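ok so I'm stuck.
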Amino acid sequence: MAGHSKFANIRHRKEKNDAARGRVFTRLGREIAVSVKAGGPDPANNVRLREAIAKAKSENMPNDTIERSIKKAAGDLNAVNFESVTYEGYGPKGVAVIVKALTDNRNRAAANVRNAFTKGGGNMGTSGCVAFLFDQKGLIMVEREQADEESLMLLAIDAGAEDFIVQEEGYEILTSPEAFSQVREALEGADISMASAEVTMLPQTITALTDPEDIKKMNKVIDLLDDEDDVQDVYHNGEW
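replied:
not stuck anymore, here's the structure
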């Protein structure tokens, strides 16, 4: 995995998703269900649900599966008892790691996350130990063949984007968390296909890993966390 080449990270994630699509869709369905419980089943009146749907679509979750997840959650709100939990810790060489989870058992989730850190040669820290090293941002990625650079930049900036970054493989559009939905919807309205669209945590600084053993350990931390059903997202500031 190529550290923070974001397009490379997306390919890595999608390749893993194809091999474990059922587990990925279960996680996305859980996120949709929690969003429905928080704000109702109508995406027009529920920003969190709109964002969950956008994330599901960017992971190639079929529309009918998304609709079933919404209807199921709306029909049995009492069954949706997941809570959001954030864990923080360190990988090899002090790589900062943030783990976002949705769980119905905090003790189980904490134990499993701690185990993943330990087996990968890292350690779980206290709340706030690395969060200050990240900024919460909306991040939308569009592959080059999907849009003209100048037109896309003007559309994104007019819709409220903070930054527009040109990469070899495509374009990165950065927004504040508050402006994310309106920028994403502007692109949807222009029929622009997005490789990824989510509110994420972007590192302010990078910790470079060069030793093969450290890289192996860091990949193990990420893989073990990815295998946990309670874990929704993993963010880190490592690069290799």
